[in-house]
Amino acid sequence: MRVLLVEDNLRLSTLVRRGLENDGFTVDGVGTISDAEVAIRTAPYDVVILDLGLPDGDGLDLLRDMRAGGSHIPVLVLTARDGVNDRVKGLNAGADDYLLKPFAVEELTARLRALLRRPDGALGLSLTVGNVVFDTSAREVRVDNQLIKISKKEMGVLEQLMRRAGRVVPKDTLESKLYGFDDEVSANSLEANVSRLRKRLASVNASVNIHTLRGVGYLLSDSDEA
Ligand code: CA
Q1: Under 8 Å CB-to-CB from 220, ≥6 apart: which residues?
Q2: For residue 187, what pLDDT is reported?
Q3: pTM for the model
Q4: Dist. CA 88 → ligand 1 center (Å)
Q5: Cα–ligand 1 centroid distance for 44 (angstroms)
Q6: How many Å lie between the centroid of ligand 1 and the Cα of residue 50?
Q7: 4 Cα–ligand 1 center, Å
Q8: Which structural domain range is residue 87 located in?
Q9: How far from each other are the two terminal CA atoms of the chain, in whole angstroms?
Q10: Are residues 208 and 133 in the same domain?
Q11: Which label site among 58, 65, 66, 68 has the fewest CB atoms less than 10 Å from its CB?
Q12: How far is the CA of 127 from the centre of ligand 1 (A)?
């Protein structure tokens, strides 16, 4: 899941980013409204974390513009401002949730997961294809009820493919979900991750296949289904 973090306090931003990345999120951080606008136009975010007091304006204005422009990306507002008025204003502007500073990063990740589960059924807690079960909340993958260990990127690939099992997932969709602006994406990095994941799944007799559609993308299918 790819997150845009809009926060100008570098210390807080670094802390949040580290926490979210540990929890399996891909995070892009920006510190101004104008950078956030560019990022939102450029990448497919699953959720935006938005500070209100930003150097070039009020985060609520960005939120209003997003909603006015038809964007439905869930937005969680971070604010040090207290009081009912600010909350009401934020919710009126289209915020999906609120977190008052200071907060624990664990609280933030729990709220994000709740937000990501909300919009539609596809974002369920647990994904199952064949004998593979992916718990998107605990970030655990089980094959035949046995926990398997895979890297965060491999887990990201598997999650995207399982969410769209039976359908082709384009390469650039996968790359944009898995790699933040700061990550170096070498030419075969996605291929390398898919290849390791495929081997790992085969080694534990997972009943899924990952098909490569050369130049297009990948498709995960249940190998037991005729
Ligand atoms: Ca601020």
Answers
A1: 129, 158, 161, 162, 164, 165, 166, 169, 208, 209, 210, 211
A2: 55
A3: 0.62
A4: 19
A5: 24
A6: 9
A7: 15
A8: 2-116
A9: 31
A10: yes
A11: 68
A12: 37
How high is the pLDDT of residue 226? 47
Cα 73 to ligand 1 centroid, rounded to whole Å? 21
121 in a domain, yes or no? no
Nearest to 159 by CA among 146, 145, 173, 76: 173
Domain presence at residue 98: yes
User: pLDDT digit string (tens) for 94-133?
Assistant: 888 888 888 999 999 988 988 877 544 334 467 889 999 9
Backbone angles phi, psi at 225, to 5 degrees: -85, 135
Q: Which residues of the chain have pLDDT under 70?
A: 81-84, 86-88, 118-125, 182, 184-188, 225-226
Structural domains in the chain (count): 2
Residue 151 lies in a domain: yes
CATH code assigned at 194: 1.10.10.10
Q: What is the DSSP letter of 187?
A: T
Q: Are 63 and 15 in a shared domain?
A: yes
CATH code for the domain of 78: 3.40.50.2300
Extract the tokens encoding 53. Answer: 């007091």
